[in-house]
Design brief:
The complex is a heterodimer of chains A (about 220) and B (about 280). Chain A has about 220 residues and is an all-alpha fold. Chain A is extended, with a radius of gyration of 29 Å. Chain B folds into two domains: about 60 residues; about 200 residues, Rossmann fold (3-Layer(aba) Sandwich), CATH 3.40.50. Chain B is built from eleven helices and six strands. A six-stranded parallel β-sheet of chain B has the order 3-2-1-4-5-6, with helices on both faces. In chain B, helix 4 runs parallel beside helix 5. The longest helix of chain B has about 35 residues. The two termini of chain B are about 15 Å apart. The chains are: A mainly alpha (about 220), B alpha/beta (about 280). The interface between A and B is large, with 46 and 59 residues.
C-alpha cells in the first residue's frame, strides 16, 4: 500500500509537468531538475549496493579476512584499470585512459561482430519468400494463395526499397524510375506505421498518468 | 461554409489537449463494453512458449523498465507473471543494464501476484536485481548463458545464490526454457546470443513505438513472440482470461485514437478550406 504522502507528491509532480502544456514555468523546470537529480542519486546508490559491493568489495574483503579463497583478493587489481578511466580528465595524461578504453572497445567490437552475424544472417535467409502457390506443402489452397501474395508484396517491397537506396547507377533511367517510386511509397508506408506507433506510445504515457490521477489519487478521496 | 471550415485548422492546440484528456477519461469513469480482440500471432507465440515450459526448467524475465516506460511495460509484465503463476512455472527476474530502478519496479508488479498464487521467494521465483552492463549487454548475456552464478553471485537483496534453492538448478542457459525481455526497446543481443547461439526461445515486450522495428525478427522466427504496447498486454490478458490493466488502458486508447483521427480529418478539412478561400479571386 503506497503512503498517502507519496501519492500526493506524485499527483502534484504530474500536474506541474502537465502545466508545461499551457506555458513553460519555473515550477515545471524545478520538477524536471529534481527528477533528474533523484534518478542520478538512486543510480549511484544502486551501482554501489548492486554492483561494486557484491561483485568487488565483498570478495576482496572476504579474501583478506580468510573466509574466501585468496584468489578473490586479486579483484583489488581491478582498481588499476578502473582508475585509468579517470585520466580522461587530464589533457597531459589522457593517453593512459586510451589503453583501457581501447581494451574495452576491442572486446565490445568483437562481441558486436559475433552478435551481428548471429542477428543479421537469419534475416537474410528469411528474406527469401515463396511466391509460387503450388510450391506450398498443402497445395494451392486459399491459405497458400494468401501466403504467396504476402511473399510477393514482401519481395516487391524489399527489392524496390533496396533499389531506392542504390546510388551506383543514374537515377534518371526511365526503366528504374517506376520501381524506385514504388520503393519510396513503401518507405512512406513504413514511416507512417512508425508515426502511428509513436502517437499510440505518447497516448499510453498520458493514459498512465490519467489512470494514476483518477484511480490512485482522486477516486479514493471521493469514495472516502 | 468555407470560412467556418477554415477556422478548424486554427483551433488552439490547448483545446485539443483538453478534449483528448476528457475523451481518455471516459472509460475510467464509466464501463464501456467493447468486443474482445483476437490475439495476434506475436502475442500467441509468447503465450505458447509459457504454456510449453517443462517443470524442470524456468523462464528468465529481463525486466529493465522504470517510470519512463511503465505506461506499457507494467501491463506487459503483469499479464505474463500472472500466467506463469497460474501454470506453476518458476521464474527468475533480472534487470540488465538499462536502468538501476528496474528491480524495484518489477518487484512492485510481481510480489502481489506471486503472494496470491502462493509462490515462495527463493523457491519459486527470484529477483536477481540490477546487472550493470558497462561493456554492453552482449558481454553480460553471453556470460549468463555460460555461468549464471558468476555474473550475478547475489540476488537483489544481497543474498548469496547458494541460499536460494531455485538458483541451485539454474546454472546456465540449458536450465532456461525461454527468455522474456521487457523494456522500452529490448536489446537484439538477446536474439544474437540466446536464440542465435543456443536456440533458446526469446520473446520481447516493447513500447508500441518500437514494435515495427522488431517485427522482422518475429517474421524470421528469431523471436518466438512479442507483446507490443498495451495492445499486446490486452491480447495476452484475453488469452489468459484475466482482463486487467492492459485491457483497461487499450480501451481508453481506442477512444483517444478516434479523437486523434477526428482531429486529423477536421484539421485537414480546415487546411483545404483555407487554401480554397485563398485561391478564390477577390
Amino acid at each position: 500500500m503506497t503512503h498517502w504522502l507519496v501519492i500526493w507528491i506524485g499527483a502534484f509532480v504530474t500536474l506541474i509537468t502537465f502545466s508545461y502544456l499551457v506555458k513553460d514555468n519555473p515550477v515545471y523546470r524545478f520538477v524536471q531538475h529534481a527528477a533528474l537529480g533523484v534518478t542520478v542519486g538512486i543510480a549511484l546508490v544502486v551501482a554501489w549496493y548492486h554492483v561494486l559491493k557484491p561483485l568487488w568489495w565483498t570478495p576482496v574483503l572476504e579474501a583478506f579476512e580468510g573466509t574466501r579463497a585468496p584468489a578473490a583478493g586479486l579483484w583489488l587489481l581491478a582498481l588499476a584499470p578502473g582508475g585509468m578511466w579517470y585520466f580522461q580528465l587530464s589533457r597531459k595524461w589522457f593517453w593512459i585512459s586510451t589503453l583501457v578504453s581501447g581494451l574495452f572497445i576491442g572486446t565490445a567490437a568483437g562481441l558486436a561482430f559475433k552478435g551481428m552475424i548471429l542477428l543479421i544472417l537469419p534475416q537474410v535467409a528469411a528474406s527469401i519468400k515463396v511466391v509460387n502457390p503450388w510450391a506450398h506443402a498443402d497445395g494451392p489452397g486459399g491459405q497458400a494463395l494468401l501466403a504467396s501474395l504476402n511473399g510477393l508484396v514482401f519481395t516487391v517491397g524489399l527489392l524496390t526499397t533496396l533499389l531506392y537506396f542504390f546510388f551506383s547507377v543514374r537515377t534518371d533511367n526511365r526503366l528504374l524510375r517506376p520501381p524506385m517510386r514504388v520503393g519510396r511509397v513503401m518507405i512512406m508506408v513504413a514511416l507512417g506505421a512508425m508515426f502511428g506507433s509513436t502517437v499510440m506510445t505518447r497516448m499510453a504515457y498520458l493514459l498512465d498518468r490519467l489512470q494514476f490521477l483518477y484511480g490512485t489519487w482522486l477516486a479514493p478521496l471521493f469514495s472516502g | 461554409m468555407l470560412s467556418w471550415l477554415g477556422r478548424l485548422g486554427r483551433v488552439d492546440r490547448r483545446w485539443l489537449y483538453l478534449g483528448t484528456v476528457a475523451v481518455l477519461l471516459v472509460p475510467f469513469i464509466v464501463t464501456v463494453p467493447m468486443p474482445p480482440g483476437r490475439a495476434s500471432k506475436a502475442t500467441r507465440g509468447l503465450y505458447d512458449a509459457v504454456e510449453s515450459c517443462p517443470p524442470e526448467k524456468v523462464v528468465l524475465i529481463d525486466s529493465s523498465w522504470d517510470m519512463g516506460s511503465q505506461a506499457e511495460n507494467y501491463a506487459q509484465l503483469e499479464c505474463v507473471v500472472r500466467h506463469l503463476c497460474d501454470r506453476g512455472v518458476k521464474f527468475v527476474v533480472t534487470s540488465i543494464g538499462v536502468t538501476p530502478l528496474a528491480p524495484s519496479f518489477a518487484e512492485q508488479v510481481i510480489t502481489p501476484i506471486a503472494e496470491r498464487a502462493g509462490y515462495v521467494y527463493g523457491r519459486d521465483w527470484v529477483n536477481m536485481g540490477y546487472v550493470q552492463a558497462g561493456g554492453g549487454a552482449g558481454v553480460i548475456i553471453n556470460g549468463m548463458c555460460k555461468d549464471f552464478h558468476a555474473v550475478r553471485p547475489t540476488d537483489a537483496y544481497g543474498r548469496r545464490v547458494e541460499e536460494l534453492p531455485l538458483l541451485g538448478r539454474v546454472r546456465s542457459i540449458d536450465d532456461i526454457h525461454a527468455v522474456y525481455c521487457i523494456t522500452y526497446s529490448p536489446t537484439p543481443e538477446w536474439i544474437s546470443f540466446v536464440q542465435g547461439q543456443y536456440g533458446t526461445p526469446v520473446a520481447f515486450g516493447c513500447m508500441t513505438i518500437m514494435g515495427p522495428s522488431y517485427f522482422p525478427y518475429l517474421d524470421s522466427g528469431q523471436l518466438c513472440g512479442m507483446l507490443v504496447g498495451n495492445r499486446g498486454a490486452a491480447e495476452y490478458e484475453e488469452l489468459v482470461g484475466h482482463p486487467a490493466k492492459g485491457t483497461q488502458l487499450i480501451m481508453a486508447a481506442s477512444f483517444g485514437n478516434c479523437m486523434i483521427i477526428l482531429a486529423a480529418v477536421l484539421g485537414n478539412l480546415g487546411a483545404w478550406a483555407r487554401r480554397r478561400r485563398e485561391r478564390r479571386p477577390a
